[in-house]
Design a protein that fits this description.
three-stranded antiparallel sheet, 331 residues, single chain, alpha+beta, 12 helices
C-alpha cells in the first residue's frame, strides 16, 4: 500500500489529468458560444453578465485587438491615437468611441478612451479589446475572471472561479493586494471612479481584516522573491510561497497562482528536487489552465516538467537540496 504522501500525490496527478481534459473541452466549446450578454447597469454604465453558469477555468472570451499601439512608435500619444482612430472603418470607429471614459470638459476624447480601456500587450505595447473593456472592475475576492495576452495574437478571459448565471463578470484593473484606501485612490487616479465592489463595501472591521491579509500577501511575496537574488535559503522561500498561498485561500484572492507555483518549480529544479519539481509543476498546470488556458505555452511547459523535471533550463544550477512539495497546500 502506498504511503500517505505518495497516495496524495497519485490522487492529485489523476485530478490534474482530469482537469486538463476538462479545460481542453471547455476551451473548445467556449469558442463557439459567448456565455454572457452586455447589459446597462445602474450608475455603472455597461457590463457583462453571465447568461449561464460558467465553470472555473472556462474560456469566457477570446478577442483580437481593434488596434494596438507600441511604445516609442510616436512623438505625441494623443495625436497618434486620433490618427489611428480616424483610419478605422466606420463600424470599428463607432465601437471605439462608444467605450467609456472620464467626462472631463475639453479633454482629448480618443486619448481618454485609450487610456481608460487599453490592455497591456507584452512588455512594450497596449491594445483596445472592446468586449474585454466592458468587463467592470472588482477587488480581491470580488473579481471572478482573469485576462491574459497570448503570444498567438489574442487576449483570453477565463473564469477564475465559478460564475453563476445572472452574476456580473468582473476582472482586476490594478494590483488589488493592497489596502482599500490605496486601491480606491489608485483606481480614481487612473480610471476616475470610486470603487464600491463587494470588498470595498465591507464594514470597517471586515475591511480591516481583508486589508491585513492582502498587505501580508504582498509583503511576504516580495520577501519570497529574494531567493532569485540568492539572498534566501530555498526551504525558507518555499515556506513563504506556501504562506502566500494560504493567505490567498483565506482571503479568496486566487490571481497569480500559476506563476507562484511555477516560481517554486524553478527553485525545486535548481536544487535538483525532482519530486518537488513534479508536484509544483502539476499545481502550476492546474492554475495556468484556469488563468491562461490548458493549451497555453505556460501550461505546456508545466506539463513537460511534471513528466521530466530534468528538462528545466535551470536544473542542477544550485546545490542539491530537498525543498518539499505542496502537500500542505493540497491537504
Amino acid at each position: 500500500m502506498p504511503s500517505g504522501n505518495l497516495l496524495l500525490r497519485s490522487i492529485f496527478a489523476c485530478a490534474v489529468a482530469f482537469l486538463s481534459f476538462r479545460y481542453y473541452v471547455n476551451f473548445r466549446s467556449a469558442e463557439n458560444a459567448l456565455p454572457f450578454k452586455i447589459v446597462d447597469l445602474p450608475d455603472r454604465g455597461k457590463g457583462l453578465v453571465a447568461t449561464r453558469d460558467i465553470m472555473q477555468g472556462e474560456l469566457i472570451l477570446k478577442e483580437t485587438p481593434l488596434f494596438t499601439i507600441k511604445a516609442g512608435s510616436f512623438k505625441d500619444l494623443g495625436s497618434h491615437i486620433r490618427s489611428v482612430v480616424s483610419g478605422l472603418n466606420s463600424s470599428s470607429r463607432s465601437t471605439f468611441l462608444e467605450l467609456s471614459h472620464p467626462s472631463v470638459p475639453g479633454s482629448d476624447i480618443p486619448l481618454a478612451i485609450f487610456q481608460t480601456n487599453s490592455v497591456k500587450i507584452g512588455d512594450d505595447a497596449a491594445g483596445i479589446f472592446p468586449l474585454t473593456a466592458r468587463i467592470n472592475h472588482g477587488c480581491s475576492k470580488a473579481f471572478n475572471s482573469i485576462s491574459r495576452w497570448r503570444e498567438e495574437g489574442f487576449l483570453v478571459v477565463h473564469a477564475l472561479r465559478h460564475i453563476k448565471r445572472g452574476q456580473e463578470i468582473l476582472r482586476e484593473y490594478i494590483n488589488t493586494r493592497q489596502s482599500r484606501r490605496k486601491r480606491r485612490s489608485e483606481l480614481y487616479e487612473i480610471y476616475a471612479f470610486d470603487c464600491f465592489c463587494s470588498v470595498c463595501s465591507l464594514s470597517p472591521g471586515d475591511a480591516g481584516r481583508s486589508d491585513t491579509l492582502l498587505s501580508s500577501m504582498a509583503t511576504i511575496h516580495a520577501e519570497f522573491n529574494k531567493w532569485e537574488e540568492k539572498n534566501m535559503d530555498a526551504s525558507e522561500a518555499v515556506r513563504l510561497a506556501k504562506r502566500v498561498w494560504a493567505l490567498g485561500e483565506k482571503e479568496s484572492y486566487w490571481s497569480g497562482r500559476g506563476q507562484l507555483a511555477e516560481d517554486v518549480v524553478n527553485i525545486a529544479a535548481a536544487h535538483q528536487d525532482a519530486t518537488a519539481t513534479k508536484e509544483w509543476a502539476e499545481l502550476a498546470l492546474e492554475w495556468y489552465s484556469y488563468e491562461v488556458g490548458y493549451n497555453s505555452k505556460e501550461a505546456e511547459l508545466m506539463r513537460v516538467l511534471s513528466s521530466d523535471p530534468s528538462k528545466h533550463a535551470a536544473w542542477a544550477t544550485r546545490e542539491e537540496l530537498h525543498v518539499g512539495g505542496p502537500d500542505i497546500i493540497l491537504m
